[in-house]
């Protein structure tokens, strides 16, 4: 700075360097929320804020932030304010691990949450285990996280892929027919989801006409659809997610395939339905959480609060995941009057969520045997247009409790090893 | 089986036509300016989002007319302000610049329009298949192919029969001599860059109708276009045209036998071509050195 003043003018390069440094600082430093009071309790959140899962990830962050502001308004956790540190995993396993390590080692967070991407969630689980930090998987679905790779310190809020399949396969079989053709994303999440659905289909007495493994980020599904149509199934199950789901359904409708075979799938999200033109919003699906639940305590308030911080838009399942992950940590820490990860992990076994956190009708608890949250599945049909609200794009026909959709613990492959 | 193959070859040609449109823009810029434009996918996204923004006022057809030239104007200024200072340097500099620019454009669109995808509805008359059996040939996809043919024909005509085209072609072969003959090379490069970006913008509008909009959509569409250029041969627009169609068909045919490999196959094809004929099918030796 002195050098610049001596010259009597602002050197262009120096200004550029300064601006770049400032920009770099803004990018590198995590967003710090609600840093009030003394010695806050830090919670780290790692999610793919950039890349193909940016939309669900950003919604998880908004939900988590709402939880933090509610918790702090009520006096924090054991009298201390909560601070949320958000890091971008950029949808990359290496980056996700690096950010998780940074949060634990440098920022000294007490707990860690994340990631939308199953593979990253699994890797963070490993790091958190090594560092003995309580970890909540907000939105990565692959079975193994609460299956054969389960850890004492890892709990999961979103559904396991087998729960998703079990919740809706019976309905699909009954209403659409017994010959199924899968369009599956070619990575951990897709593989376990398709295997679970195939197991259900076989049990029900149906057959698979084919399984198209599509690379993540596929833009043109026509070749797969030509093949699927040629196999002559009763129903084409679209298992791809995010923008892949949008592209695939859009092409199915443009090709008029929906007039020839039934189109459906397992997991569907509001983010995807909103990104589609109305005519592509078709089929029977399961939602992991839905914003319209008349008479269920706390839901209306949650919807109103999210609207305030979400450009007027309603919460999706992803907002609820972020919200519930943070609330779980606060609830159990307040109950135990401690932030010790081991103590809280033990207390979370069979821990039941209170009504203003679970925001759904059925009992909602973390199962002791595999650390999976037993939360409900919302089964119903996609709607082209919302009736009372433009975002009411799903008609819920039934809500199935988590206990009924989850595999018995001895079939998950999980054996929780507690530290000595 | 024969029918399935025939379907996929036709389908591959349709997809290939889109890659050609995208790759020709890249190729134009690469040939004259030696700039490997990694931001091309970004310009595609800009074109698509501009179309999305103006559609409520001017409809799909209006957007198709407005968005590509507007994208080209943005491209023109990007070339003047950011890329021009790097011409004298190693092509690596402009590669890094456009690589960074791609990230900035992606995050910029996310900042303005949000991370969540945006639906784009195409005119009803185009959004239906021509027959039940050939369901994959929809009005819109035929329109995309027609648009690609018209634009490619126009581009080749301009390059072949106009003074500007002559200069661009001459510049591709020997820019120094063209400059020595009194041609304003800077202006030529700006115009040429803008023309390339125009094609990206047009691809963006067409892709938006087919796929909807998403800030990351450019990345997925950019790589096959690069492959098309390498397969066809750097320096040859005809090569790019054939390369684009070839990878479309290759990917369509692979989908019949090994669906999971249908994206990987274009890279295998590229590797094979590079091994057997390093300059590409129609490429000129010694480009990019």
Describe the structure.
The complex is a heterodimer of chains A (420) and B (289). Chain A is an alpha/beta fold and 420 residues long. Chain A has 2 domains: 34-159 and 294-375, Response regulator (Rossmann fold), CATH 3.40.50; 162-287, 3-Layer(aba) Sandwich (Rossmann fold). In chain A, 43% of the residues lie in helices and 17% in strands. Chain A has helices at 2-7, 12-28, 54-73, 93-105, 118-130, 161-176, 188-204, 222-230, 242-254, 270-274, 299-309, 317-336, 341-348, 355-358, 402-405, 409-412, and strands at residues 31-33, 41-47, 82-88, 111-113, 134-137, 154-156, 179-185, 207-214, 235-238, 262-264, 284-287, 365-366, 373-374, 377-382, 394-400. Chain A has a 6-stranded mixed beta sheet with strand order 1-3-2-4-5-6, with helices on both faces. Chain A has a 4-stranded parallel beta sheet with strand order 8-7-9-10, sandwiched between helices. The radius of gyration of chain A is 22 Å and the shape is globular. Chain B is built from 10 helices and no strands. The model of chain B has no long low-confidence stretch (mean pLDDT 89). Chain B has one domain (2-276): ABC transporter involved in vitamin B12 uptake, BtuC (Orthogonal Bundle), CATH 1.10.3470. Chain B has 289 residues and is an all-alpha fold. Helix content of chain B is 75%, strand content 0%. Chain B is globular. Chain B has helices spanning 2-33, 40-83, 91-113, 139-161, 163-173, 175-180, 185-211, 217-232, 237-257, 264-276. Classes of the chains: A alpha/beta (420), B mainly alpha (289). The A-B interface holds A 50-52, 54-55, 57-58, 186, 212-215, 217-220, 222-227, 229-230, 243, 246-247, 250-251, 254-257, 260, 271-272, 274-280 and B 3-4, 7-8, 11-12, 14-15, 106-107, 110, 114-121, 127-129, 132, 135-136, 138, 140, 207, 210-212, 214-217, 219-221, 251-252, 255-256, 259-260, 262-264.
């Amino acid at each position: 700075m002195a050098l610049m003043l001596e010259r009597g003018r602002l050197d262009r390069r120096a200004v550029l360097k300064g601006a770049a440094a400032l920009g770099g600082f803004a990018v590198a430093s995590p967003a710090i929320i609600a840093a009030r009071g003394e010695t806050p309790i830090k919670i780290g959140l790692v999610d793919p804020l950039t890349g193909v899962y940016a939309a669900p990830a950003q919604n998880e962050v908004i939900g988590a932030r709402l939880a933090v502001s509610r918790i702090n308004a009520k006096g924090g956790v054991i009298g201390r304010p909560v601070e949320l540190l958000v890091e971008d995993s950029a949808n990359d396993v290496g980056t996700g691990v690096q950010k998780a390590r940074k949060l634990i080692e440098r920022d000294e967070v007490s707990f860690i949450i994340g990631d939308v991407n199953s593979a990253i969630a699994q890797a963070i689980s490993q790091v958190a285990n090594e560092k003995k930090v309580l970890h909540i998987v907000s939105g990565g679905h692959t079975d193994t996280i609460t299956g054969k790779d389960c850890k004492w310190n890892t709990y999961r809020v979103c559904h396991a892929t087998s729960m998703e399949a079990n919740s809706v396969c019976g309905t699909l079989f009954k209403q659409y027919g017994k010959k199924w053709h899968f369009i599956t994303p070619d990575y951990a999440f897709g593989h376990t989801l398709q295997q679970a659905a195939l197991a259900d289909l076989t049990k029900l007495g149906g057959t698979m006409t084919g399984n198209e493994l599509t690379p993540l980020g596929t833009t043109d599904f026509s070749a797969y659809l030509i093949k699927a149509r040629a196999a002559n199934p009763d129903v084409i199950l679209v298992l791809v997610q995010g923008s892949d789901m949008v592209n695939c359904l859009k092409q199915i409708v443009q090709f008029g395939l929906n007039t020839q075979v039934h189109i459906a799938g397992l997991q569907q999200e509001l983010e995807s339905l909103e990104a589609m033109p109305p005519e592509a919003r078709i089929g029977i699906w399961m939602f992991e959480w839905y914003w319209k639940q008349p008479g269920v305590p706390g839901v209306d308030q949650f919807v109103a609060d999210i609207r305030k911080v979400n450009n007027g838009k309603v919460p999706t399942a992803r907002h609820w995941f972020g919200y519930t992950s943070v609330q779980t940590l606060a609830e159990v820490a307040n109950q135990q009057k401690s932030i010790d990860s081991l103590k809280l992990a033990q207390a979370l076994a069979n821990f039941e969520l209170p009504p203003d956190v679970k925001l759904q009708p059925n009992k909602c608890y973390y199962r002791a045997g595999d650390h999976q949250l037993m939360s409900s599945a919302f089964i119903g049909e996609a709607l082209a247009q919302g009736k009372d609200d433009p975002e009411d794009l799903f008609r819920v026909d039934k809500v199935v409790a988590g206990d009924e959709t989850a595999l018995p613990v001895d079939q998950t492959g999980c054996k929780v090893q507690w530290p000595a | 089986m024969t029918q399935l193959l025939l379907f996929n070859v036709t389908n591959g040609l349709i997809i290939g036509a889109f890659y050609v449109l995208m790759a020709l823009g890249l190729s134009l810029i690469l040939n004259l300016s030696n700039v490997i434009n990694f931001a091309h996918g970004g310009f595609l996204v800009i074109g698509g989002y501009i179309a999305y923004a103006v559609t409520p006022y001017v409809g799909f057809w209006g957007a198709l007319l407005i968005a590509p030239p507007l994208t080209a104007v943005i491209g023109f200024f990007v070339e003047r302000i950011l890329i021009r200072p790097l011409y004298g340097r190693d092509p690596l500099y402009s590669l890094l610049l456009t690589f960074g620019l791609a990230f900035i454009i992606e995050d910029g669109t996310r900042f303005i329009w949000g991370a969540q995808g945006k639906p784009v509805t195409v005119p009803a008359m185009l959004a239906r298949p021509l027959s039940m059996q050939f369901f994959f040939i929809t009005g819109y996809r035929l329109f995309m192919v027609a648009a690609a043919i018209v634009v490619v024909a126009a581009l080749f005509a301009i390059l072949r029969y106009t003074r500007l085209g002559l200069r661009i072609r001459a510049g591709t072969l020997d820019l120094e001599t063209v400059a020595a003959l009194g041609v304003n090379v800077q202006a030529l490069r700006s115009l040429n860059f803008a023309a390339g970006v125009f094609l990206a913008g047009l691809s963006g509008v067409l892709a938006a109708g087919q796929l909807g909009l998403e800030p990351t959509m450019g990345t997925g569409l950019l790589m096959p276009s690069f492959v098309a250029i390498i397969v066809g041969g750097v320096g040859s627009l005809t090569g790019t045209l054939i390369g684009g169609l070839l990878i479309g068909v290759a990917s369509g045919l692979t989908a019949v036998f090994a669906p999971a490999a249908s994206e990987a196959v274009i890279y295998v094809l590229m590797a094979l071509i590079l091994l057997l004929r390093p300059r590409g099918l129609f490429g000129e030796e010694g480009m990019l050195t």
